[in-house]
Amino acid sequence: MTDRLHKPGAPRRCVRLSAALAAICFSAAAGAIEYQVHGYAAQGFVLSSDNDFFGDSTEGSFDYYEAGINAAVQLGPQLLFSAQGAVRDAGISDDGTVRIDYALADYRLVADESIQAGLRAGKVKNALGFYNETRDVVFTRPSILLPTVYSDNQNQRSLIFTSPGAQMYAGLVTGAHEWSFTGTLNAERDVRKSDERLLVMLSAPFDLRIGDSWNVQLMDSIDGGRWQLAYSHFSGQFRLKTAPEISLAGRFDVDLDVFSARYNAERFTVTAEYVVIGNEILLTFGGIPVVRTDVRADSGYLQAEYRVDPRWSVMARMDSFYRDRNDRNGRRFAAANPGADRRSQVSHDFTVGINWRPDEHWGVWAEHHWINGTATLQSLENPPPVREQRWRMFMLMAGYKF
Amino acid sequence: MRFNLTTSFSWRRWLAVLLLSVSVAASPQDKTFAADVIVSPSLSEIALDRSLLRAVFTMRVREWPDGTPVRVFVLPDDNPLSDVFYRERLGMYSYVLRRAWDRMVFTGTGLAPTVVGSEKEMIERVRSTPGAIGFVRKRESSESRYERPRTLLVMLTKGQ
Question: Domain residues for A353?
């Protein structure tokens, strides 16, 4: 049937060649091929006082959802292919367009009981702290909203989340310690238009790209995961270009150092993470430097989770973020920017939450935030002047995974 | 708060609740509630110590020493037997394992174990799948007959 519909020629030879290659590949791995398909979907609701977060939340916002579907095929013990398509909407900070979350080939070089190592290539997830890699899957988060270490409503998620590149991973067991290492080299890539407007406010047309970046993570999981300690580093840069007649260019270097610690007991888990973010900005006009700043932000949290029973759990978290760790009360910023509120430079968030998992597929989350400071707000969603520095937020989310 | 325990019906109900809570709160000290590893017949010679079991159930190894692909079967996380097995044999909590599996599944870096609905299905799947490993409730008879055997309870399925 198919043959009659196709004229003889290159395309058909191509199909035959592919079929032959596939047959060789599949027969070589006969009996060892295994595949899985998984997915997730969750809808959120945000209700806040005074300020808007993830949409028009002072009126109640449903402008917050996430969904994805993935497939993984294992061709023998060495080779694994996987890809995930995802959508996410989060007010102004994400727009619900479909994207490839990851698409990679994983080749295992060493696969022993006590030592493993391998390579991945394609679009890979960057290991940063405990939650970055799966940050859009609510089932893997401790709460609906991630702590500010992960900049969930800020603009660096496009830089650190996922990127084309090559990754090396290794694992080593020594006594009670399970060491794991991930190192990633990311290729240069474009920034989506919807993200550009969050990162740079410029009336002239411009293009923003992410230059070469790299990241590493070293984790020690002790005694079957009772203790988990990790250090992660990310180094990358945004490059701004405008038309030659404007001749404005910029380079924004971003370096993150994340220190993570977690204690897992039978009923409770205590987690703490701290990040220092170096933001170095260089703007040139006609090749001459006009702006040069070097500011270090930092953020940290202490979080406790308690599993009441296999279905119910509760959590509480203290979370703080400072745009400039050398100006923690924001007074220097206020002095340099007359009329600006110093508390726009900080955010202290106390959160309590509850989670119900009726079965392995469904989950419902609810949490309440008491927030002092407006550093985590999007200015496009909250045009200055900011309405209130002390505000509250209630979030609900229901999700399904398989 | 007052409880009416005067009828036999109430007693039965409270006994059921009591048994339920014992099974939910089963701890490593529970001699009446233990888990056994089961493997494919071809794997009967492999010594499965805690270190290898951890490597297998955290999906860090993908093949057995003889080259057979590892196929891991588990019961749902909220099955009390899962909890007992992970604690007794792996020295891990089920939520820590689930976190590791979810991380692999949603980063495309590995396959998760196959979840089966019941111990009966577990036995059938492990029996019929080469390289398979799973776990079942330790039978009371095996407890007394073998005095908590240190070796594996291997399913002999020569017909496969």
Answer: 14-401
* Listed residue (A376, A374, A323, A320) closest to A349, CA to CA: A320
Q: What is the pTM of this model?
A: 0.84
State the CATH number of the domain containing residue A28: 2.40.160.10
Q: Which amino acid is at B124?
A: E
Q: Which is nearest to A96 in space by CA: A62, A146, A125?
A: A62
Distances in Å between the Cα of A347 and the Cα atoms of A243, A277, A344, A380, B19 are 37, 15, 8, 18, 49
pLDDT tens digits, residue range A311-355?
999 999 999 999 999 999 999 999 998 888 888 899 999 999 999
- AA identity, residue A330: G
In this predicted complex, what is the ipTM? 0.88
Asked if the Cβ–Cβ distance from A82 to B108 is below 8 Å, we say yes
Residues A393 and A367 sit within 8 Å (Cβ to Cβ): no
CB–CB contact B54 A309 (8 Å): no
Query: How many distinct structural domains can be found in chain A?
Result: 1
Give the three-class secondary structure for B156.
Answer: coil
> Which of A140, A264, A359 is nearest residue B102 as measured by Cβ atoms?
A140
Q: Compute how many other C-beta atoms are within 10 angstroms of the C-beta atom of residue A117.
A: 15
Q: How far does B96 lie from chain A, in Å, by closest CA? A: 7
Q: Is the dihedral of CA A27, A31, A37, A38 positive or negative?
A: negative
A1 in a domain, yes or no?
A: no
Q: Under an 8 A CB cutoff, do B93 and A80 touch?
A: no
